[in-house]
Amino acid sequence: MQAKTGKLIKPHSDATADLILDVAQELLQTRGYNGISYQDIAEQVGIRKASIHHHFATKAELGVKLLCRYRRQWHAFLAGVDESTAGPWEKFDQYLDPFRATARTGDRACLCGILGAEFAALAPELQQEVQGFFRDNETWLAALLSHGRRSRQFRFQGDAASEAAVIFACLEGSLIVARAARNPLQFDAVIVQLKGRLGR
Amino acid sequence: MQAKTGKLIKPHSDATADLILDVAQELLQTRGYNGISYQDIAEQVGIRKASIHHHFATKAELGVKLLCRYRRQWHAFLAGVDESTAGPWEKFDQYLDPFRATARTGDRACLCGILGAEFAALAPELQQEVQGFFRDNETWLAALLSHGRRSRQFRFQGDAASEAAVIFACLEGSLIVARAARNPLQFDAVIVQLKGRLGR
DNA sequence: GTCTATAAGATGATAGAC
DNA sequence: GTCTATCATCTTATAGAC
After folding, report:
1. Which residues contact A124 (CB under 8 A, 6 or more apart)?
2. A145, A155 in Cβ contact below 8 A?
3. What's the Å distance between residue A22 CA and nucleotide C16 C1'?
4. What is the pLDDT along chain A (200 residues), one digit of tens a residue?
5. pTM across the whole model
6. Rounded to an integer, what distance in angstroms lies between the CA atom of residue B102 and that of residue B97?
7. How close B198 comes to chain A (CA, Å)?
8. What share of chain B is helix, strand, coil (3-state, %, to 5)?
9. CA B173 to each of CA A48, A172, B55, B74: distance values in angstroms, whole numbers, following the listed order
10. Structural domains of chain B, with CATH
């Protein structure tokens, strides 16, 4: 669709659509899916409601497209961490960076953490994406933990999947709780504690 | 108000208002604050929208009253745990019971965990109550952890407040993640892991 | 205390001009 | 691709009869 520009390889790059998704994501991470409207997005983008509908016919479609982009970016990020030659501890730190960045904003939590809270109110397609994001993270974390323990750098009891679930749930929960407490430092304290648990 | 019945000591006990709060709480725990309406509540209670407004003039007032009741019940619950002669491990288990019960429903998360996710979209009075609930829990948990470590039954690094923050964030996050995964057993696995961390 | 009726505004969505 | 105008519906909330 709309392959007029010279970039033949990446035909799907509508600047306006991307901007809409940027704004929608920021609003969603602060107020939740049912807390934002096309009107809210339109105002921040600087166009009219109808123009948003031109790019994303329905709110559910906008949500799905947003989550697809989010997961695509996340996969690229995780792949980057995997490619690095760093050890388990450095990789864990790299993984935590986006969470730390979100905590520092003071007004956002994880996109999927918030959508997870509104889970039953979401369209099935959106629910699937949220599920997928959770699964992706727990799987990746479990692999990292597994490797780290084999190389005797991480220490923890039980299976890697359970430990991954604890760490991921803790990250999602911390972002929500620390934001409500208006205390980003609480998130850092949780990280310190989580690391101590893995053997420092 | 309305002290017609013989119960002179507890004048504030409107059965309909309580039922409304019951229904509102259940809906809120599944769909979130912005995911439910007076209409939704009215249908489940079996009365009309206007009748809900008679008991709770505005939605924010309903939310605040609901959270006040929730925190009151929670305080009573925590006081009950404190009064028991059980040891730290048993008390921790008692504390976990409501979380386990919520996880088993399969479609609810913690009321305040969900409201925390929608934080910026809430009225300031509601935000305060959510903050208060988080603080109450972390304070209580920190005290339990502190006592448990002094009596050499719990083992953990760092200060009790940080460990309490980790455990509480983990519980809130787990309820959200496990529900999305449609796997209540995942919550139990997290509990096992959390306990292992404290020394089994 | 509950009801019907209704207001006033927001919301997701569409039609059609430019 | 963006706009104005409009629609149907939902939402919170109020007025007033029973």
Report:
1. none
2. no
3. 29
4. 444 454 445 555 799 999 999 999 999 999 999 999 999 999 999 999 999 999 999 999 999 999 999 999 999 999 999 999 999 999 999 999 999 999 999 999 999 999 999 999 999 999 999 999 999 999 999 999 999 999 999 999 999 999 999 999 999 999 999 999 999 999 999 999 999 999 97
5. 0.95
6. 9
7. 10
8. 75, 0, 25
9. 37, 5, 33, 19
10. 1-57 (1.10.10.60), 67-197 (1.10.357.10)
* Other Cβ atoms within 10 Å of A174 Cβ, number: 30
What is the spatial distance, in angstroms and rounded to an integer, between the CA atom of A67 and the C1' atom of C12? 20
Interface test with A, best of B26, B37, B108, B119 (most A CBs within 10 A): B119
Residue A7, exposed/middle/buried by CB under 10 A (0-12, 13-18, 19+)?
exposed
Q: Which nucleotides of D are covered by protein (CB under 7 A)?
A: 1-5, 10-16
Give A121's DSSP letter.
G
Asked if B109 contacts B176 with a C-beta cutoff of 8 angstroms, the reply is yes
Residues in reach of strand D, judged by a CB distance below 7 angstroms, are A 2, 14, 16, 47-51, 54-55; B 36-40, 49-50, 53, 57-60
